[in-house]
Amino acid sequence: MDPDATLSIALGVARAVADGRSAGPDDARDLADALLNLDEWIARGGYLPARWRSAAPARPRGAALAEELDRTLAERGYQEARELRAAGDLEGAKDAQDVALRRDPDNRP
User: Fold this and answer.
1) What span, in angstroms and rounded, lies between the C-alpha atoms of 79 and 100?
2) Are 89 and 66 in contact (CB under 8 A)?
3) Among 9, 21, 24, 108, which residue's Cβ finds the most Cβ atoms within 10 Å?
4) Cα–chain-centroid distance for residue 85?
5) Which residues of 15-53 are buried (b: 16+ CB within 10 A; e: fewer)?
6) Could you say which DSSP state residue 34 is in?
């Protein structure tokens, strides 16, 4: 699947509908198909469309995320993030760490 082409289709249909140019059943089906295909692609680990990659900050995953969390949490001791990391919830721990960093922006590496 080409995520760039799929996003282009979805955006084209969405713009047409938003502008009142079209809102037929084919448009709704095309938009739904494009979004579902793109969601499945990304959920399976596929890369983001280029339009979204340039705006999305890189976020480590898997072992790289675990290593970053272990290092950062050891340095700062954010309790909630540490508990989530210990329970194996890497994404939750990263989110908790990000919240703690926003609350205390001076406590950065």
Assistant:
1) 10
2) no
3) 9
4) 19
5) ebeeeeeeeeeebeebbeebbebbeebeeeeeebbeeee
6) H
Alpha-carbon span 72 to 77, nearest angstrom? 8
How many CB atoms within 10 Å of residue 100? 18
Q: Mapping DSSP to helix (H, G, I), strand (E, B) and coil, where does residue 24 land?
A: coil
Tokens of 15: 């713009």
Measure the CA–CA gap between 90 and 10, rounded to whole angstroms.
31
Kindly state the tokens that stand for 103: 């609350």
Positive or negative, the Cα torsion across 76, 78, 84, 86? positive
At 17, give phi and psi (nearest 5°): -65, -45
